[in-house]
């Protein structure tokens, strides 16, 4: 178990650093720990800039970034990683995180977390977990750095070097803040082919709904954009955080030149202080050009029986799944509206006090994929998605998030996203098809959803 030692020391002195870290190492060795986690308060710095700086000075490409109102967490490098596949993937990463974090000795104010990314399907990539080398958390204007390392003979030196890299990254940011390129004017290519294929798939889904085989199917469409000079990872993230202040801005990557990033409005689950929160999100309309039009679209969304039904399928799924896990949910009687830059949704925030602790990855395993991103009933919907979708979803519509040593944490759903790969950006966006869905309108919804990434790619 991580135990905190109250520790404050002069971080500019190498010998003082060694003395203090050595005390922590001794304590960790006595406790038979394998990893050490050292927390340091940092001056105010933008965690995204520090992440970019750390990736630059260290040459590390593994990273994780999640920004939401009130908290930003960034992680870089890898001290321990695990890649998994198959239908036990959530359980395997749960075991990996439990084993890793239970053998970690934390020196206050370290707040060690283990980061995970999953793919939509259990037989594709990526499914991995990482204890990062550096972790940065910003909360209430305070920034905390956590240095993690394996306990070895040269641990004090490793930690000192990693701390020096942070100093270099900070100095670099101060001397020369990374430029933020303006958004590129990206024109949508003609989507005739995608349009035709999507309409055919929706018609197929409507037949299945008519026959009673399924109640809802969330069909996606794929779009690839090419930028001969390459897309700017940092510029795109900067644009996303400016444009989508009430979404989860995320970026995750294992390999150089391969990044999955986006601005997701959808949280899958959060567990904090013994309370679980899960969000139902489904039912969509665009934003209006004028206040009046916006209001009328909002009313249309709120009062549409089709959208309310589509939304209710998710609420019921969450309630029943969490009930099977032993929880009693508090569910608001009516949804509310979540307004984003290009689109608005019906949203219901569900809460459940935990009668006893449950590991967040056990909940993720039970919830993924929800009817918001796959359909209902789950097995039939997934069967049809495999038949009808000619592309790999990879991390699209899949969970990504972090776990604490006590099994709490937070996972979001990787929608409104793109996979950046060299000069290409691969986008996916989906729409829920239920009885009464109109193929042309569902296509319009796909276009609004693509817009999130198109307007931010830089
Ligand atoms: C599947 C996506 O979004 C999901 C589907 C929605 C819908 O059908 O109304 C709304 C929000 C998300 O739960 C996506 O953005 O790709």
From TrEMBL:
Would I find Amino-acid biosynthesis among this entry's keywords? no
User: Which GO molecular function annotation, any one, does this entry have?
Assistant: isochorismate synthase activity
List keywords of the entry alphabetically. Isomerase
Q: Into which family does the record put it?
A: Belongs to the isochorismate synthase family.
Which enzyme type, at the first EC level? isomerase
The UniProt record lists the Chorismate-utilising enzyme C-terminal domain at 197-449
Signal peptide location: none
State the EC number(s). Answer: 5.4.4.2
What is this protein's name? Answer: isochorismate synthase
